[in-house]
Amino acid sequence: MAESIGERLASRYLLLHPLGSGGMGTVWLARDEMLDREVAVKELRVPDGMGERERAELVTRVMREAEVTARLRHPAVVSVHDVLVEDGRPWIVMERLNGRPLSAEISAHGGLQPGAVAEIGARMVDALSAAHAHGVQHRDVKPGNVFLTVDGRVVLTDFGIARQADTTNLTGDGMLIGSPGFIAPERLEGHPGGPAADLWSLGATLYTALEGAPPYRGSHVQVIHATLTAPVPAPRVGGPLGTLVTWLMARDPADRPDAATAGRLFQEIVRGGNPDIAPAGRKKNGPWVAVAAGAAAVVAAAVVLLAPWESGGAGAPAARRPPAPVFAQDVDLCRVVSADQVKALLGQNARPTEIEGGCQWTVEGTGLRLEPTTDSDTPNWWDLDPEAARSLYGGIKRHVANQPRDSSLIWYEIGTKRRIPTVISAIRPLTGVGEEAFTWDVTSAEGRIIAVDVYFRVGDFVGRIEYADLGDRTADQMRSGAETAARAAADTLWGHA
């Protein structure tokens, strides 16, 4: 490690000295010589004995996750400035935080004051809500990843970056990521989990902050067994804060409060209130399930019967289209844009690759990506109802419209080895794509449109299309390509329920 001191990355970042080291790699203090500021640089460790293919997949995944993380602009989320690959290793450049992690604070002082824990809870729920709105799950919320700065910020770190570290084979047939004692029960049982799993992990983190020790103790095996079978021990700190923390740790995800409820209650406690919290499980198998399933089947049948009648596709009169779908089952998003359409957009054939429930098609210099989106209350995007989908779409539209114009783009699979500074245009309505859609341009510092993004809604599905090109496609070609891809996906989904 000492031989890396004084090393320069990308002829810009001078490594000064290590700040810490763990299973996933080393965090360095570095100086960004271009902007003359201190930054933290995370060197991701590639496990010994990993084959070339696995190594390439790891680097690709880290780059993609860092790209998603960099989209999160929130005071309680660590900022990612840059990501690069040097000597086959991924490096993540982040803001330099002064302070120490919550885990160190607990080790030094034991349990924190209830007011401080409530404040941490309120800020972390806000941070997770912002992430979940972007379709990002943390998956490793724990005291070591909550940072307390000297200027009073509470910052959630390691978004999507620590996924390959601390990986424990917990299910026998698959790998689960996280730290025992802070992994939600549903993920321990082999389910992918959703936003509610992050809230469980936050509950365990706040419990540890209150008590000075985690809720379940012992060996990893004992902790995992207790998480799956034992009730949450009652915290010594009672009242609404203790009740809220244990409510977040309800074994069934449907029995936990949603982020909006938890955030409101934490804020009320911070203000000195004494809210009456009475957790209650939500009914998941009532009569409405059969009714909804029957309605979805009717809609699906209508699509099958009416599809031949509406042969005009996107150009057919709106009145001739069947009702917007309510999806009764998952749809393979890698099949909603045809191979011929992909070839026309990218200029050559490209095989689809699954990404976090979505799909992407990439060749050198050009890429197309389709990602589903959901809200913080619905882990599976195919389980949204139409009202929730409309609300989600509206919230995303407001967020994109009000976000900072300065941004950046990195897409490792199409050849962006480093983050490209960009400017985001104002959003524009897009007609003829699903039930509602909007789009915006991503322009390089040189003033060329290098990507166009589209959000669209079809029934109870909300998705995002991203079309990028590093070559010489014109602005009209970029906009037309993104719109064509979005329309193709929306039209296919409309007939796919």
From the structure above, extract its key features.
single chain; 497 residues; alpha+beta; Phosphorylase Kinase, domain 1; Transferase(Phosphotransferase), domain 1; Protein Transport Mog1p, Chain A; nine-stranded antiparallel beta sheet; six-stranded antiparallel beta sheet; 12 helices; 20 strands; 33% helix
Descriptive notes:
The chain is α+β, with helices and mostly antiparallel strands and 497 residues long. It folds into three domains: 94 residues, Phosphorylase Kinase, domain 1; 172 residues, Transferase(Phosphotransferase) domain 1 (Transferase(Phosphotransferase), domain 1); 166 residues, PknH-like extracellular domain (Protein Transport Mog1p, Chain A). It is built from twelve helices and 20 strands. Strands 12, 13, 14, 15, 16, 17, 18, 19 and 20 form a nine-stranded antiparallel β-sheet that branches. It is globular and about 65 Å long. The chain starts with 7 loop residues before the first strand and ends with a helix.
- The CATH architecture of the largest domain is Orthogonal Bundle
In terms of quaternary structure, the protein is: single chain
What is the tally of beta strands?
20
- Low-confidence residue ranges: 162-175, 282-320
Mean pLDDT: 82
User: For the terminal residues, how far apart are their CA atoms?
Assistant: 54 Å
CATH homologous superfamily heading of the largest domain: Transferase(Phosphotransferase) domain 1
Rg from Cα: 23 Å
Beta-strand portion reads 15-25%
Question: Approximately how much helix is present in the residues?
Answer: 25-40%
- What is the number of domains? 3
Class by helix and strand content?
A: alpha+beta
CATH topology of the largest domain: Transferase(Phosphotransferase), domain 1
Largest sheet features:
9 strands, antiparallel
CATH class of the largest domain: Mainly Alpha
Q: Outline, from the CA principal axes?
A: globular
* Alpha plus pi helix count: 12
